[in-house]
Amino acid sequence: MNIRPLGGHIIVEAKIKEAKTASGIILPESEEKQPEQGKVLAVGPGKFLDNGTRQVMEVKIGDTVVFKKYGPDEIEIDGKKYLVVAAEDIIAVIE
User: Distance between CA atoms of 38 and 14, rounded to whole angstroms?
Assistant: First the structure.
């Protein structure tokens, strides 16, 4: 992947939840939820703040993050889907 996010944006590869329950029941597509976790693949430099400085990005490439369910935008590059998440939509880093 050759993509460089701008400003306060982060490129994330979504962690897809299993479409099958622990007891083996397969859930229909309509029951699947939006992804809420993923692995950071690229980080922008941070958006410009009102005082002219850049926002410090709190995540780095390789972090596993939790983000707002309906915050990201989905993009497709070379047939693979990625999420573009704003820095303010990242809730936590899983360590």
Answer: 4
The 8-class DSSP code of residue 19 comes to: S
- Are 38 and 16 contacting, i.e. CB atoms less than 8 angstroms apart? no
Q: Where are the domains of the chain?
A: 9-94
Fold type of domain 9-94: 10 Kd Chaperonin, Protein Cpn10; Chain O (2.30.33)
Tens-digit pLDDT profile for residues 4-47: 999 999 999 988 766 667 777 776 554 456 678 999 999 999 99
Nearest to 60 by CA among 39, 82, 83, 43: 43
- Residue 44 Cα to chain centre, angstroms: 13
57/88 Cα distance (integer angstroms): 10
Task: Quote the tokens at residue 72.
Answer: 């990201």
